[in-house]
Amino acid sequence: MRGVEVRGIDIDAPWLAEGSLLVNGVDVVPLVEAELNRRFPGRELRQAEDPEGLRAAWAALERAWAAAVERAIAMPAGTVDASVGGEWSFAQTLRHLAFAADVWLGQAVLRLPQPCHPLGQPHAEYAMGGFDTSIFAAGRPGLAEILDLRAERQAMVREFLATVTPQTLAEPRRHPWSAETEVSVLRCLHVIIGEEWEHLRFALRDLMTIDTARTGG
Is 128 helix (H, G, I), strand (E, B) or coil? Predict the structure, then answer.
């Protein structure tokens, strides 16, 4: 783009770190990444490659999400089920992260025969992959149920990381969406961690939008 007016533009790109974005000849991606890491302590560990680094990354995520849940619960009734711009609500986001843990750890890494909990929130790729989506609960589960499931899945990841070895991280696993593709255990964990950080950013962004609309600030 040349000679364009960029006033008021809002870009939300979850995959920004995978490419470049030039503004007047300057690649701003490293600047954006550095600022996101400043805002979300521990995010810089999302690509950790050793057990100790992965454990530290997960501990940082658990702390960050605990604060986000506390904030959401403290907001007016109905906030956790409110959707902003057609995006998932806070409650749906928690359900999706449970689903991500089920698919990438339970199914891919641990190879459990029935990894997915009915309260999980799948996305379109799951149905397109030929998987049975009829197991997932319809309607709107209560927040207490969702938080219990969330805690269970966080513990599942934490307990796996507590004993994982470099050798295990290097082992191949079947990609959840492609039976012909193999990925490492480490790659599966990176997907989970990446999902956690991106959805935390989305969730906090939407909570702020809801709060601003409510207060007029």
Answer: helix
pLDDT of residue 16: 82
Backbone angles phi, psi at 165, to 5 degrees: -115, 160
Dump pLDDT digits (tens) for 36-51. Answer: 999 999 999 999 999 9
Predicted model pTM: 0.91
Amino acid 114 reads: Q
Token digits of residue 122? 């799948």
- Specify burial of residue 80 (Cβ count, 10 A radius: 0-12, 13-18, 19+): buried
The topology under which CATH files domain 49-215 is Four Helix Bundle (Hemerythrin (Met), subunit A) (1.20.120)
Find the range with the poorest average confidence among 49-53, 131-135, 147-151.
Answer: 131-135
CA angle 215, 87, 101 (to 5 degrees): 120
Q: For the chain, what are the domain ranges?
A: 1-39, 49-215
